Amino acid sequence: MHLHDARTVLNDLADRGILLDYEQNGDVTYILPPPMAGFFEFSLMRYRNDIDQKNLAELFYQYLNVEEDFIKNLFLDGDTQLGRAFVNERVLSTDNALHVLDYERASEVIRTASKIGIGVCYCRHKMAHLNRNCDAPMEICMTFNGPAESLVRHGIAREIDVAEGLDLLQLAQDHNLVQFGENVQERVSFICNCCGCCCEALIAARKFGFLNPVQTTNFMPEIDGDKCTGCGKCVALCPVEAMSLVSACDPHKPGKKIARLDTEQCLGCGVCLNGCTVGALRLVSRPQRVITPVTSVHRVVLMAIERGKLQNLLFDNQVFTNHRALAAVLGVILKLPPAKQILASNQFRSRYLMALIRSSGYT
Protein backbone atom coordinates (compact mmCIF):
# COMPACT_ATOMS: atom_id res chain seq x y z
CA MET A 1 0.00 0.00 0.00
CA HIS A 2 1.34 3.45 -0.96
CA LEU A 3 1.71 6.23 1.61
CA HIS A 4 -1.14 8.20 0.04
CA ASP A 5 -3.47 5.19 0.19
CA ALA A 6 -2.50 4.45 3.79
CA ARG A 7 -3.14 8.06 4.78
CA THR A 8 -6.57 7.92 3.12
CA VAL A 9 -7.52 4.81 5.10
CA LEU A 10 -6.19 6.22 8.36
CA ASN A 11 -7.98 9.54 7.85
CA ASP A 12 -11.21 7.67 7.20
CA LEU A 13 -10.78 5.81 10.51
CA ALA A 14 -10.09 9.13 12.26
CA ASP A 15 -13.22 10.63 10.64
CA ARG A 16 -15.19 7.82 12.28
CA GLY A 17 -13.55 8.32 15.68
CA ILE A 18 -11.76 4.96 15.65
CA LEU A 19 -8.34 6.65 15.55
CA LEU A 20 -6.98 9.94 16.87
CA ASP A 21 -4.34 11.82 14.93
CA TYR A 22 -1.69 14.27 16.09
CA GLU A 23 0.18 16.70 13.86
CA GLN A 24 3.70 17.84 14.80
CA ASN A 25 6.38 19.39 12.61
CA GLY A 26 4.54 18.35 9.49
CA ASP A 27 4.26 14.70 10.54
CA VAL A 28 0.99 13.00 11.43
CA THR A 29 0.82 10.22 14.01
CA TYR A 30 -2.26 8.03 14.32
CA ILE A 31 -3.08 6.22 17.56
CA LEU A 32 -5.82 3.89 18.68
CA PRO A 33 -7.64 5.42 21.67
CA PRO A 34 -8.90 3.13 24.44
CA PRO A 35 -12.51 1.94 24.37
CA MET A 36 -13.40 4.26 27.29
CA ALA A 37 -12.85 7.10 27.38
CA GLY A 38 -12.29 6.70 23.67
CA PHE A 39 -13.86 5.23 20.58
CA PHE A 40 -17.02 4.08 22.41
CA GLU A 41 -17.80 7.72 23.20
CA PHE A 42 -16.57 9.13 19.88
CA SER A 43 -19.04 6.95 17.95
CA LEU A 44 -21.99 8.64 19.69
CA MET A 45 -20.61 12.14 20.31
CA ARG A 46 -22.44 13.42 17.21
CA TYR A 47 -25.61 12.53 15.32
CA ARG A 48 -24.84 10.42 12.24
CA ASN A 49 -26.68 8.78 9.36
CA ASP A 50 -23.83 6.62 8.07
CA ILE A 51 -24.24 4.01 10.83
CA ASP A 52 -27.17 2.61 12.78
CA GLN A 53 -26.62 4.49 16.03
CA LYS A 54 -29.68 2.94 17.67
CA ASN A 55 -28.35 -0.56 17.13
CA LEU A 56 -24.90 0.53 18.29
CA ALA A 57 -26.35 2.09 21.44
CA GLU A 58 -28.26 -1.09 22.25
CA LEU A 59 -25.11 -3.18 21.79
CA PHE A 60 -23.05 -0.82 23.98
CA TYR A 61 -25.68 -0.94 26.70
CA GLN A 62 -25.75 -4.74 26.63
CA TYR A 63 -21.95 -4.92 26.75
CA LEU A 64 -21.53 -2.41 29.56
CA ASN A 65 -24.57 -2.91 31.79
CA VAL A 66 -25.68 -6.50 31.31
CA GLU A 67 -22.54 -8.55 30.62
CA GLU A 68 -20.49 -6.25 32.93
CA ASP A 69 -17.10 -8.00 32.55
CA PHE A 70 -15.62 -5.07 30.64
CA ILE A 71 -16.94 -2.43 33.03
CA LYS A 72 -15.66 -4.37 36.05
CA ASN A 73 -12.19 -4.68 34.54
CA LEU A 74 -12.22 -0.98 33.66
CA PHE A 75 -13.35 0.44 36.99
CA LEU A 76 -12.75 -2.09 39.75
CA ASP A 77 -9.15 -3.32 39.54
CA GLY A 78 -6.38 -1.47 41.39
CA ASP A 79 -6.27 1.71 43.43
CA THR A 80 -5.62 4.13 40.55
CA GLN A 81 -8.71 4.80 38.48
CA LEU A 82 -9.31 6.06 34.95
CA GLY A 83 -11.46 9.00 36.01
CA ARG A 84 -12.02 11.33 38.94
CA ALA A 85 -14.77 13.58 40.20
CA PHE A 86 -14.34 17.35 40.32
CA VAL A 87 -15.82 19.25 43.23
CA ASN A 88 -18.72 21.60 42.45
CA GLU A 89 -16.94 24.94 42.82
CA ARG A 90 -20.17 26.83 43.46
CA VAL A 91 -20.67 25.20 46.87
CA LEU A 92 -17.13 25.73 48.15
CA SER A 93 -16.85 27.90 51.23
CA THR A 94 -14.03 30.41 51.59
CA ASP A 95 -12.19 27.94 53.80
CA ASN A 96 -12.73 25.07 51.34
CA ALA A 97 -11.43 27.15 48.46
CA LEU A 98 -8.08 27.52 50.21
CA HIS A 99 -7.61 23.74 50.05
CA VAL A 100 -8.53 23.23 46.38
CA LEU A 101 -5.57 23.03 44.01
CA ASP A 102 -5.84 24.36 40.47
CA TYR A 103 -5.93 20.92 38.84
CA GLU A 104 -8.90 20.01 41.07
CA ARG A 105 -11.05 22.73 39.45
CA ALA A 106 -12.92 21.97 36.24
CA SER A 107 -12.90 25.71 35.49
CA GLU A 108 -9.09 25.73 35.55
CA VAL A 109 -8.93 22.80 33.12
CA ILE A 110 -11.09 24.83 30.75
CA ARG A 111 -9.07 28.02 31.18
CA THR A 112 -5.69 26.38 30.53
CA ALA A 113 -6.59 24.04 27.65
CA SER A 114 -4.86 24.61 24.32
CA LYS A 115 -8.04 23.51 22.50
CA ILE A 116 -11.60 22.83 23.66
CA GLY A 117 -14.08 20.64 21.81
CA ILE A 118 -17.75 20.04 22.62
CA GLY A 119 -19.70 16.99 21.56
CA VAL A 120 -22.99 15.26 22.25
CA CYS A 121 -23.07 13.42 25.59
CA TYR A 122 -22.35 9.81 24.69
CA CYS A 123 -24.16 8.41 27.72
CA ARG A 124 -27.43 10.32 27.31
CA HIS A 125 -27.33 9.82 23.53
CA LYS A 126 -26.99 6.07 24.07
CA MET A 127 -29.83 6.04 26.61
CA ALA A 128 -32.05 8.11 24.30
CA HIS A 129 -32.03 5.24 21.81
CA LEU A 130 -33.26 3.00 24.62
CA ASN A 131 -35.89 5.54 25.79
CA ARG A 132 -34.15 5.75 29.16
CA ASN A 133 -32.50 9.18 28.96
CA CYS A 134 -33.12 12.16 31.22
CA ASP A 135 -33.63 15.79 30.14
CA ALA A 136 -30.13 17.03 31.03
CA PRO A 137 -28.29 19.02 28.33
CA MET A 138 -26.94 16.92 25.45
CA GLU A 139 -24.24 19.01 23.75
CA ILE A 140 -22.03 19.31 26.79
CA CYS A 141 -19.32 16.61 26.56
CA MET A 142 -15.92 18.37 26.86
CA THR A 143 -12.60 17.32 25.31
CA PHE A 144 -9.33 19.20 25.63
CA ASN A 145 -5.85 19.63 24.20
CA GLY A 146 -4.58 16.96 21.76
CA PRO A 147 -7.72 14.79 21.65
CA ALA A 148 -9.86 17.90 21.14
CA GLU A 149 -7.68 18.97 18.19
CA SER A 150 -8.22 15.61 16.49
CA LEU A 151 -11.95 15.42 17.23
CA VAL A 152 -12.53 18.98 16.02
CA ARG A 153 -10.47 18.38 12.89
CA HIS A 154 -12.61 15.38 11.97
CA GLY A 155 -15.98 16.94 12.78
CA ILE A 156 -16.70 14.82 15.85
CA ALA A 157 -16.56 17.80 18.23
CA ARG A 158 -17.22 21.53 17.83
CA GLU A 159 -14.47 23.96 18.79
CA ILE A 160 -15.39 26.54 21.42
CA ASP A 161 -13.54 29.23 23.36
CA VAL A 162 -12.93 29.49 27.10
CA ALA A 163 -15.93 31.77 27.69
CA GLU A 164 -18.37 29.29 26.16
CA GLY A 165 -16.67 26.45 28.03
CA LEU A 166 -17.24 28.20 31.35
CA ASP A 167 -20.84 28.95 30.36
CA LEU A 168 -21.40 25.24 29.66
CA LEU A 169 -19.83 24.36 32.99
CA GLN A 170 -22.30 26.74 34.66
CA LEU A 171 -25.14 25.11 32.70
CA ALA A 172 -24.02 21.67 33.88
CA GLN A 173 -23.92 22.79 37.48
CA ASP A 174 -27.36 24.39 37.10
CA HIS A 175 -28.62 20.91 36.15
CA ASN A 176 -26.83 19.29 39.11
CA LEU A 177 -24.49 17.30 36.87
CA VAL A 178 -21.24 15.85 38.18
CA GLN A 179 -17.98 16.81 36.51
CA PHE A 180 -16.13 13.54 35.82
CA GLY A 181 -12.77 13.80 34.07
CA GLU A 182 -9.48 12.14 33.32
CA ASN A 183 -7.60 11.23 36.50
CA VAL A 184 -4.49 13.34 35.89
CA GLN A 185 -3.19 16.71 37.03
CA GLU A 186 -1.75 17.97 33.73
CA ARG A 187 -3.37 18.26 30.28
CA VAL A 188 -6.69 16.63 31.12
CA SER A 189 -8.16 15.19 27.93
CA PHE A 190 -11.86 15.07 28.84
CA ILE A 191 -14.49 16.19 31.32
CA CYS A 192 -17.95 14.66 31.14
CA ASN A 193 -20.91 16.40 32.76
CA CYS A 194 -22.65 13.38 34.17
CA CYS A 195 -26.09 12.46 35.44
CA GLY A 196 -26.56 9.50 37.75
CA CYS A 197 -29.13 7.84 35.49
CA CYS A 198 -27.16 7.65 32.23
CA CYS A 199 -23.42 7.91 32.99
CA GLU A 200 -21.54 4.60 32.89
CA ALA A 201 -19.02 5.76 35.52
CA LEU A 202 -21.71 6.85 37.97
CA ILE A 203 -23.75 3.69 37.37
CA ALA A 204 -20.60 1.71 38.22
CA ALA A 205 -20.10 3.90 41.30
CA ARG A 206 -23.63 3.04 42.49
CA LYS A 207 -23.18 -0.68 41.87
CA PHE A 208 -19.64 -1.01 43.20
CA GLY A 209 -19.11 2.16 45.24
CA PHE A 210 -17.36 0.40 48.12
CA LEU A 211 -14.60 -0.54 45.64
CA ASN A 212 -14.11 3.13 44.68
CA PRO A 213 -14.45 2.82 40.88
CA VAL A 214 -14.23 6.63 40.56
CA GLN A 215 -11.45 8.67 42.18
CA THR A 216 -13.12 10.94 44.73
CA THR A 217 -12.46 14.60 45.42
CA ASN A 218 -10.68 15.63 48.61
CA PHE A 219 -14.00 16.60 50.22
CA MET A 220 -17.11 15.00 51.63
CA PRO A 221 -20.30 16.55 52.99
CA GLU A 222 -20.84 16.82 56.73
CA ILE A 223 -24.41 16.77 58.05
CA ASP A 224 -25.60 18.98 60.88
CA GLY A 225 -28.28 16.81 62.48
CA ASP A 226 -29.70 19.73 64.45
CA LYS A 227 -30.42 21.70 61.26
CA CYS A 228 -31.45 18.83 58.97
CA THR A 229 -35.23 18.73 58.38
CA GLY A 230 -35.22 15.40 56.56
CA CYS A 231 -36.62 16.94 53.37
CA GLY A 232 -34.73 14.43 51.23
CA LYS A 233 -33.54 16.89 48.58
CA CYS A 234 -29.91 15.87 49.07
CA VAL A 235 -30.93 12.22 48.71
CA ALA A 236 -32.65 12.94 45.40
CA LEU A 237 -29.65 14.88 44.08
CA CYS A 238 -26.90 12.40 44.99
CA PRO A 239 -25.91 10.61 41.75
CA VAL A 240 -24.42 7.58 43.51
CA GLU A 241 -26.97 7.04 46.30
CA ALA A 242 -24.51 7.94 49.04
CA MET A 243 -27.20 9.92 50.88
CA SER A 244 -30.19 8.34 52.59
CA LEU A 245 -32.84 9.26 55.16
CA VAL A 246 -32.86 7.53 58.54
CA SER A 247 -34.72 8.00 61.79
CA ALA A 248 -33.56 10.97 63.84
CA CYS A 249 -34.15 8.87 66.98
CA ASP A 250 -35.86 11.86 68.55
CA PRO A 251 -38.30 10.71 71.27
CA HIS A 252 -40.20 14.00 70.97
CA LYS A 253 -40.56 13.62 67.19
CA PRO A 254 -40.76 9.87 66.52
CA GLY A 255 -41.40 10.32 62.80
CA LYS A 256 -38.55 12.74 62.15
CA LYS A 257 -35.96 11.78 59.53
CA ILE A 258 -32.47 13.14 58.95
CA ALA A 259 -29.92 12.62 56.19
CA ARG A 260 -27.13 10.09 56.56
CA LEU A 261 -23.97 9.82 54.43
CA ASP A 262 -22.29 6.61 53.30
CA THR A 263 -18.70 7.85 53.23
CA GLU A 264 -17.49 4.79 51.29
CA GLN A 265 -19.92 5.58 48.47
CA CYS A 266 -19.52 9.37 48.39
CA LEU A 267 -17.68 11.00 45.47
CA GLY A 268 -17.28 14.34 47.22
CA CYS A 269 -18.77 16.15 44.23
CA GLY A 270 -20.82 18.50 46.42
CA VAL A 271 -23.95 18.31 44.24
CA CYS A 272 -26.05 17.44 47.29
CA LEU A 273 -25.35 20.88 48.78
CA ASN A 274 -27.31 22.48 45.93
CA GLY A 275 -30.54 21.13 47.40
CA CYS A 276 -30.04 22.02 51.05
CA THR A 277 -31.82 25.29 51.88
CA VAL A 278 -31.38 25.13 55.66
CA GLY A 279 -27.60 25.05 55.89
CA ALA A 280 -27.44 21.49 57.21
CA LEU A 281 -24.69 20.44 54.79
CA ARG A 282 -21.13 21.68 54.41
CA LEU A 283 -18.04 20.29 52.74
CA VAL A 284 -15.16 19.11 54.92
CA SER A 285 -11.76 17.75 53.92
CA ARG A 286 -11.28 13.99 53.80
CA PRO A 287 -9.01 12.60 56.52
CA GLN A 288 -6.41 11.57 53.92
CA ARG A 289 -5.67 13.58 50.81
CA VAL A 290 -6.46 11.88 47.51
CA ILE A 291 -3.42 11.51 45.25
CA THR A 292 -3.94 12.29 41.56
CA PRO A 293 -1.42 11.02 38.97
CA VAL A 294 0.52 13.87 37.40
CA THR A 295 0.32 12.87 33.73
CA SER A 296 -1.45 10.31 31.58
CA VAL A 297 1.76 8.25 31.43
CA HIS A 298 1.94 8.28 35.24
CA ARG A 299 -1.68 7.11 35.46
CA VAL A 300 -1.33 4.41 32.80
CA VAL A 301 1.83 2.99 34.39
CA LEU A 302 0.23 2.94 37.86
CA MET A 303 -2.90 1.25 36.51
CA ALA A 304 -0.82 -1.34 34.65
CA ILE A 305 1.30 -2.16 37.73
CA GLU A 306 -1.70 -2.43 40.06
CA ARG A 307 -3.52 -4.68 37.60
CA GLY A 308 -0.49 -6.90 36.95
CA LYS A 309 -0.27 -5.80 33.31
CA LEU A 310 2.97 -3.83 33.09
CA GLN A 311 4.44 -6.36 30.68
CA ASN A 312 1.40 -5.93 28.43
CA LEU A 313 1.84 -2.15 28.47
CA LEU A 314 5.48 -2.46 27.43
CA PHE A 315 5.25 -5.19 24.83
CA ASP A 316 1.72 -4.93 23.39
CA ASN A 317 2.09 -1.18 22.89
CA GLN A 318 5.59 -1.53 21.41
CA VAL A 319 7.09 0.88 23.93
CA PHE A 320 10.55 -0.51 23.19
CA THR A 321 10.36 0.76 19.60
CA ASN A 322 10.11 4.37 20.80
CA HIS A 323 12.90 5.62 23.04
CA ARG A 324 10.82 8.58 24.24
CA ALA A 325 7.93 6.35 25.29
CA LEU A 326 10.29 3.94 27.05
CA ALA A 327 12.05 6.81 28.83
CA ALA A 328 8.68 8.18 29.97
CA VAL A 329 7.58 4.81 31.39
CA LEU A 330 10.90 4.16 33.14
CA GLY A 331 10.91 7.72 34.49
CA VAL A 332 7.54 7.12 36.13
CA ILE A 333 8.62 3.79 37.62
CA LEU A 334 11.77 5.30 39.12
CA LYS A 335 9.68 7.93 40.94
CA LEU A 336 7.22 5.44 42.43
CA PRO A 337 7.21 4.34 46.08
CA PRO A 338 9.31 1.21 46.77
CA ALA A 339 6.26 -1.08 47.03
CA LYS A 340 5.09 -0.12 43.53
CA GLN A 341 8.64 -0.51 42.18
CA ILE A 342 8.81 -4.05 43.53
CA LEU A 343 5.50 -4.87 41.82
CA ALA A 344 6.84 -3.39 38.57
CA SER A 345 10.11 -5.32 38.71
CA ASN A 346 8.33 -8.59 39.52
CA GLN A 347 6.03 -8.19 36.50
CA PHE A 348 8.71 -7.01 34.09
CA ARG A 349 11.57 -9.26 35.34
CA SER A 350 14.22 -6.98 33.86
CA ARG A 351 17.77 -6.89 35.22
CA TYR A 352 18.15 -3.47 33.60
CA LEU A 353 15.11 -2.13 35.44
CA MET A 354 16.31 -3.59 38.75
CA ALA A 355 19.71 -1.98 38.24
CA LEU A 356 18.04 1.37 37.57
CA ILE A 357 15.90 1.06 40.71
CA ARG A 358 18.93 0.18 42.82
CA SER A 359 20.92 3.09 41.42
CA SER A 360 18.03 5.45 42.23
CA GLY A 361 18.59 4.74 45.90
CA TYR A 362 15.26 3.04 46.70
CA THR A 363 16.76 -0.44 47.30
In short:
The protein is an alpha+beta fold. It has 16 helices and 12 strands.
Quaternary state reads single chain
- Helix content bin: 40-55%
Number of domains: 3
Low-confidence runs:
none
H/E order of the elements? HEEHHHEHHEHEHEHEEHEHEEEHHHHH
Structural descriptors:
six-stranded antiparallel sheet; 12 strands; Alpha-Beta Plaits; two-stranded antiparallel sheet; 363 residues
Summarize the structure in words.
This protein is an alpha+beta fold and 363 residues long. The protein has three domains: 3-211, no CATH class; 219-285, Alpha-Beta Plaits; 296-359, no CATH class. The chain is built from 16 helices and twelve strands. A six-stranded antiparallel β-sheet has the order 3-7-8-5-4-6. Strands 1-2 form a two-stranded antiparallel sheet. A two-stranded antiparallel sheet has the order 9-12. Helix 12 (296-306) packs across helix 14.
Topology:
Elements: H1 3-15, E1 20-24, E2 27-31, H2 35-42, H3 53-67, H4 69-75, E3 83-86, H5 94-97, H6 106-112, E4 116-120, H7 122-129, E5 139-144, H8 145-153, E6 158-160, H9 162-174, E7 178-182, E8 190-194, H10 200-208, E9 219-223, H11 233-237, E10 243-247, E11 257-261, E12 281-285, H12 296-306, H13 310-316, H14 323-334, H15 338-348, H16 351-359
Antiparallel strand pairs: 1-2, 3-7, 4-5, 4-6, 5-8, 7-8, 9-12, 10-11
